[in-house]
Amino acid sequence: MKKILAAVSGFGALGAGAALAERTQGGVAMLPANSALAEEVHFFHNWILMPIITGISLFVLALLLWVIFRYNSKANPNPRKFSHNTLVEIVWTAVPILILLVIALPSFDLLYKEDVVPDGKQVAIEGDGQTVDFVFPNNFADGRTVVRPRHVEVYLESSSGFQKLAHRADYRLAGLGDPEVVVEFETPPAAGDSVVIRGGRSLIGRGDRKQIAMAPTMTIKAVGRQWGWNYTYPEYGGDFEFLSDLLPEDQATPETWLLDVDNRVVVPVGETIRVTTTATDVIHSWAMPAFAVKIDAVPGRINETWFAAEREGVFYGQCSEICGIRHAYMPIAVEVVSRERFCEWVGEQQTALGVERTAEEKAAEPLCGSSTAVTRMADAADILSEED
Ligand SMILES: [Cu+2]
Q1: What mean pLDDT value characterizes the chain?
Q2: Comparing C-alpha atoms, which of 183, 146, 348 is closest to residue 266?
Q3: Cα(270) to centroid of ligand 1, in Å?
Q4: What is the pLDDT of residue 303?
Q5: How far, in Å, is the centroid of ligand 1 from the Cα of 328?
Q6: How far is the CA of 225 from the centre of ligand 1 (A)?
Q7: What structural domains does the chain harbor?
Q8: Ligand 1 centroid from CA 321, angstroms
C-alpha cells in the first residue's frame, strides 16, 4: 500500500489545466456526449422524455387554470351533481399506460446496451486483385452470432483512406448464421487494399453514426472506498494499482475544485474499455456522464459495464451513491488520450509503481505489447477465440 501511495507522479498523461474545455459555466444542459451510446441516451432525454414531461406539465397546468376560472363559485354558482364519467375514466387510465410504454421501450433498449459488454470483432484481409470472397469467422457465443446484414460492416482500406461500403451496392453476404460468413465482391479489391470486416450484434449510436460496438480491448477496475477511488489495470501487471483522491483546494483551480483528482484514470481513445467496480466499505457508484456510465460499486461483488470514448480530453464524474460524510469529495477524472500516449503512460506508471514484467508479459499487454501491434479489433477477435 505504501508503494501505491508514494509512487504515482500526479495527474495523468496530460497534466493540469487540460481540463474543463467542454464544460460551460452556468450551463444547464447535459455535458457533451463522448460516446455513441451517450449520444443515444441524450437523444432519449432531449427528444422523448423532455417533450413528454413538458406536454404533461402544460396540459395539467391548463386543466388547473380551466377549473380555477370556469368552475369557481362565482362563475359556476349551480354545479352539476354527477360523479362518474366512464369515457373520461377509460381515457385517463389508458393514456398514461401508453405514455409509460413509449418511455419504457427505448429505455429498456438503452439499459440493455449499457449492461451487455459488446462482443464485436474485426478481421482485416488483404486483397490480391483476384479474390472476390472474404471470410468472416462467425464464432460468437450462442445467441450472439451474426445473422442479419446489419450485423456486418465492411470497410475498404486503401491509399485513398478508410471507406465504408454499402451492402448490396458494393458487396453481398452469404452464410449469415453459419460458422463462416462470406463477403462477396463483384470486382476483386486491388492488391494491397485491405477489406476490413466487422461483425457483432451490439449496435450502438443513431442514424449515420450507428456502428457495431467492438469487444473490450482492456479492463480497468475501480474500487470505491471512503473517500476516494483505487484503480487497477489488471492486464498491465499485478501491482499496477494507484489511489485517486480529491485534488486539494490549494492545488485546484476554482473550476476544477471538487472535480479533479491527484491521479487520473488514463484510457486510450476509440477503444472499448471494460469497467469493473467494487468497494471496500460501503456502496459507492462510479459515474461518468460524458460516457453515460453510472454503475454501483458494491462491497463483496463485482459490477461490470463498458464505454468507448470518441474524443481525447479530461472528463469528470463523481461518486453517485450517498456513501458517508465525505461523499461529495470523491470525484472521478478520466483522461482520454491517444493510444501512443496511453502506452507511454503505462510504461511510466510501471516504472513508478515498480511493476515487474517479463518480456513475455510485456509483449502480451493489450494495445501496447509488441505481439498486440495489430488493430484493436484483431485483439477483440483474439479475446473471443480464447473464450471459445
Ligand atoms: Cu462514494
Answers
A1: 87
A2: 348
A3: 28
A4: 96
A5: 8
A6: 7
A7: 2-26+215-387 (2.60.40.420), 36-115 (no CATH), 121-201 (no CATH)
A8: 6
How many angstroms separate the CA atoms of 229 and 327, rounded?
12
Cell for 359?
Answer: 518480456
pLDDT band at 5 (very low <50, low <70, confident <90, very high): very low
Kindly give the distance from the C-alpha atom of residue 110 to the centroid of ligand 1, in angstroms, as a whole number. Answer: 25
What spacing in Å lies between the alpha carbon of 326 and ligand 1's midpoint? 8
- What is the pLDDT at residue 12? 57
Burial, 250: exposed, middle or buried (Cβ in 10 Å; 0-12, 13-18, 19+)? exposed
Cα 25 to ligand 1 centroid, rounded to whole Å:
25
pLDDT of 386: 45
**CA 103–ligand 1 middle distance (angstroms):** 30
Give residue-wise pLDDT tens across range 215-260: 999 999 999 999 999 999 999 988 899 999 999 999 988 888 899 9
Full-model pTM: 0.83
Q: How far apart are the first and last CA of the chain?
A: 37
pLDDT, greater one: 19 or 136 = 136
Q: Higher confidence at residue 379 or residue 177?
A: 177
CA of 288 to the centre of ligand 1 (A): 13
pLDDT of 383 higher than 50: no
What separation in Å is there between the alpha carbon of 325 and the centre of ligand 1? 9
